[in-house]
Amino acid sequence: MKIDLRLEDGITVVDLEGTITIGEGDVQLRKTLFALIERGQNKILLNMERVGYMDSSGVGELISCFKEVHERGGQLKLLNISKKIKDLLQITQLLSVFEYFSDEAKALSSFK
Amino acid sequence: MSQLKDIKFVDLRFSTSLGILDIIKSLMGRICEQMEFDEDSSYWIWLATQEALNNAIKHGNKMDKNKFVHLVLSTLDDEFTISVQDEGEGFDQSSIPDPTAPENLLKTSGRGLFFMRNFMDRVEIQINQGTKVTLTKKIKGSPS
To answer: Chain A contact for B47, CB < 8 A?
Structure first.
């Protein structure tokens, strides 16, 4: 998985590219986000436009990161999730947990 | 009709490793294409299969490289069947909570079997010298 970070108005946008599955992407995502949280960058927007596939381990890692960010008083939101990943989050009832956006400007302004 | 069902049966036994998943994914993609599953169906069939393989490798064989996973793919009549067997100790199905229950929503694991049941037509689990999970999908266009 390719992970790029950029700072937009105090919010860390994490651009992901690849898959979030067991042994590939899941641990990498967790390490990246936990390192951000440790540095106090706890307003995080995960751009998943280029994530085409995620298994239950990937869902688990998203939840793990979400919980960690919230415990530190931060926010983790999703941007540009694909239809299939949206379906996964829908059937697991997690769309009610994660705030998600299809417009980056709106997503960024929602943190304020 | 296309070159349907060139591959009718695949029997694969491999030592515990996540590294083989890409190869199996490629093989599954080819078989799904031959059976004229659409892109969405192929996607979800692979997700269900990967969840079964993940469970066998991680929870069944506990990543032990000295243990094996047995994968059988078969197309018979109007069904595509995938069976995954590990060499673990088995598990109690009733011990797996409903991941959509409010109290379980934020649990970080326990969704693999849920995905299999959502995306396949039938899921059977047998515990006997390991766990054998059999996933079945009806082949589209076949007479019922």
So the answer is: yes
CA distance A6 to A42: 13
Nearest to A14 by CA among A25, A22, A24, A23: A25
The answer to whether residue B25 neighbours chain A at the CB level (below 8 Å) is no
Residues 6+ apart with CB under 8 A from A62: A20, A29, A46, A54, A94, A98
B29 near A CB under 8 A:
no
pTM of the model: 0.92
Please tell me what DSSP assigns to residue A83. Answer: H
Contact between chains at A88 and B115 (C-beta distance less than 8 A): yes
A5 band by pLDDT with thresholds 50, 70 and 90 = very high
**Is the CB of B115 less than 8 angstroms away from the CB of A55?**
yes
Domains assigned to chain A: 2-109 (3.30.750.24)
Q: Tens digits of per-residue pLDDT, B27-71?
A: 999 999 888 899 999 999 999 999 999 999 999 999 999 999 999
Residue A43 has pLDDT above 90, yes or no: yes
Do the Cβ atoms of B137 and B45 come closer than 8 Å? yes
Residues B37, B5 contacting (CB under 8 angstroms): no
